[in-house]
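> forwarded from #structure-qc
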């Protein structure tokens, strides 16, 4: 019998059996030698690679091979702007920036204001569109280089994508869509069409550069269903199959679920006042025991602790200190209150600094937009008119 995945684009559990997920999705776990090859090409290491926050892939080896041969390569990732950005969203973007800097790659970034409008009953397209612009500030605060970062906003820039989308759409049946995304008879047809656009974007670099361009997509494993279809149809459309490198999901701060906009109290937003962010950490669920005595006696479980995962995935650069924290939690030497207080102060500092950078970027937003840098590919009618 076919297994169902506990993770998909519109929902996910918090503590997932990621090995099982890789098997269900048919991706490949990142091996030590693959990590080494990427580190060699990048000329350095990243905590998210060493700790396997980025932990599985498809054809990363093919991509690196092409890169080393000098074939044109680029990056692609995106965001569904349904609100403010939280720490889970920015996690893959930190790693994307590292790839951009280290490999000197151009990044194509999709803001799917249409997707979020179709998906969320309460959201108007004008709001998701406004969030698209707000979320660009987060990309700028991360330090993505606007000269090498090209953002498309679906509801405004569709003319870039539509010529690809019409061909992609013809390759995908409703039965594939239903089986891949779990659509039902009551799903609105906007959402049923939407995957075509997310898939089409992985072929846009080849069109814009007018040459075969290999694309690597660093993104959460929840986005994987799109790429399975993209890879299936790419050869018949004359594009290279896009490669992926998948990250695990940062858990929310509540008892269950990934960090998600649908549960705002369990997510830390980049726009939360620093003190609010810190308080969310203080109130977080942990893998600790219910009392100090029991914690001292039995120790906690960092593997199922949202606070420990924040250290591991984002807030502790030093591997030795992370290991010490892990062991001290296990043996009961470290109490949850102390562990949270330290994280709260790191989060407070991080938010203050990040928000300064966000505000400083307000007049640079346009520089990131693809439309300000790439001409629309010429079409027949326009040729006739020239
Ligand atoms: P969205 O806005 O849901 O998520 C944006 C990115 O954040 C990742 N993500 C997480 N990563 C770690 N921990 C979490 N708790 C967490 N929650 C979300 C997602 O995997 C994603 O990488 N449909 C997409 C928009 C999109 C896109 C793309 C994303 C269009 N093209 C290409 C990735 C790559 C969406 O709604 O993402």
């Amino acid at each position: 019998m076919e297994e169902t995945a506990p993770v998909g684009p519109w929902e996910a559990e918090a503590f997932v059996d990621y090995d099982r997920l890789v098997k269900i999705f048919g991706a490949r776990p990142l091996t030590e030698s693959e990590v080494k090859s990427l580190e060699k090409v990048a000329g350095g290491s990243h905590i998210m690679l060493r700790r396997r926050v980025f932990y599985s892939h498809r054809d990363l080896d093919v991509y690196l091979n092409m890169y080393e041969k000098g074939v044109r390569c680029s990056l692609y990732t995106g965001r569904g702007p349904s609100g403010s950005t939280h720490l889970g969203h920015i996690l893959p973007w930190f790693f994307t920036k590292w790839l951009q800097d280290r490999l000197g790659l151009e990044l194509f970034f999709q803001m799917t204001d249409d997707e979020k409008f179709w998906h969320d009953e309460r959201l108007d397209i004008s709001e998701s569109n406004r969030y698209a612009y707000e979320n660009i500030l987060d990309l700028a605060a991360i330090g993505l280089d606007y000269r090498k970062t090209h953002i498309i906003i679906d509801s405004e820039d569709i003319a870039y994508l539509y010529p690809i989308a019409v061909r992609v759409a013809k390759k995908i049946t409703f039965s594939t869509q239903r089986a891949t995304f779990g659509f039902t008879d009551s799903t609105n047809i906007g959402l049923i069409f939407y995957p075509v656009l997310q898939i089409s974007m992985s072929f846009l670099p080849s069109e814009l550069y007018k040459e075969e361009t290999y694309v690597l997509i660093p993104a959460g494993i929840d986005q994987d269903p799109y790429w399975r279809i993209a890879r299936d149809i790419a050869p018949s459309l004359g594009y290279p199959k896009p490669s992926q490198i998948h990250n695990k999901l940062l858990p929310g701060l509540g008892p269950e679920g990934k960090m998600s906009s649908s549960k705002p109290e369990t997510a830390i937003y980049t726009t939360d006042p620093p003190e609010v962010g810190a308080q969310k950490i203080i109130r977080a669920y942990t893998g600790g025991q219910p009392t100090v005595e029991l914690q001292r006696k039995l120790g906690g479980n960092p593997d199922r602790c949202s606070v420990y995962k924040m250290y591991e995935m984002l807030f502790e650069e030093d591997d030795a200190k992370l290991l010490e924290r892990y062991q001290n939690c296990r043996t009961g030497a470290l109490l949850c209150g102390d562990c949270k207080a330290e994280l709260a102060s790191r989060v407070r500092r991080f938010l203050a600094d990040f928000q300064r950078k966000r505000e400083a970027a307000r007049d640079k937003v346009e520089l990131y937009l693809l439309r300000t840098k790439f001409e629309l590919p010429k079409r027949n009618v326009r040729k006739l008119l020239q």
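QC bot note: The chain has two domains: 10-247, 264-360. The two ends are 58 Å apart (CA to CA).
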